[in-house]
Amino acid sequence: MIAPIDIILLFFLIFSAICAVLIRDLLAAIIILGAYGFIMANVWLQLNAPDVAFTEAAVGAGIITAMMIATLSRLKKKDRMEKRAKKKASSAIGLTTILCLSLIFFYAITDAPAFGDKNSPANKYVLLFSLKAEDHVETLNSGNVPHKIKEKIEGMGFSRANNFQELEKNYVVLPTEDGWDVLVETYELYYHEPIKLYFIKKDGNELEVYRYNWPVRVLEKTVEETGIYNAVTSGLADYRGYDTMFEEIVIFTAAVCVVMLIRKRGKL
After folding, report:
1. Read out DSSP for 108-166?
2. pLDDT tens for each residue of 154-193
3. Could you tell me the residue range of the domain that residue 13 belongs to?
4. Which tens digits make up the pLDDT trace of 4-53?
5. Looking at the domain assignment, is residue 195 inside a domain?
6. 243 in a domain, yes or no?
7. Which of 38, 70, 106, 142, by CA, is between 20 and 30 Å from 127?
């Protein structure tokens, strides 16, 4: 269920975006865009992403607004009208560029996994360990995680000491077609439902215990897969390297555009 505050924030985002596009006064449009960045920071905070919220507040609502106002102060009050033919050529080039980028986007998005696809990287499990089934099946069917499995999970570092949810009384065991899902309470401020963190599969006389891939990779696979010891660095520069690269391109392009707008004529 969407919280009322999320609906209000979404409404203000749409409203401010439309106003920024339609309003003719450039200074007013810049101020509205600053408000848009501030509202977006609150949206990120609602989504439990305070790091992104701080960045949005500092960059989207702060630095960019200041840079735009500085740029506006260097522009003439009234720009000379360009020739009609030149304007048409510029519009055609802009429209062609947008169409090409849209085609590239739709081509790229077709290769993305479907939302909720169990075989997508975000939903895949990583095998933690396996052990003899013995009497553990009855314990799982009764809605409890066997003590031996808890000990092994905690021994791998998934414990409260390392800021991971422990399997005490805060979990639910749900049977599936090929095993058991273990849902764990996260005690989030706005998201109260338990999330699926473990999957236990019976394979013959063995029980295989899986967990979603990201925590495992951060704790155990970072050096093996990336050769980087720092998990934050490996996440930014390797696992999501393309994302980081294009973020840097966007920032670089914006900086170049600002420099070209505020430079003196004929000089950088």
Report:
1. HHTTSPPTT-TTSTTT-EEEEEEEE-TTHHHHHHTT---HHHHHHHHHTT-SGGGT---
2. 888 888 888 777 888 888 999 988 899 999 887 666 666 7
3. 1-76
4. 788 888 888 888 888 888 888 888 888 888 888 888 888 888 777 777 78
5. yes
6. no
7. 142
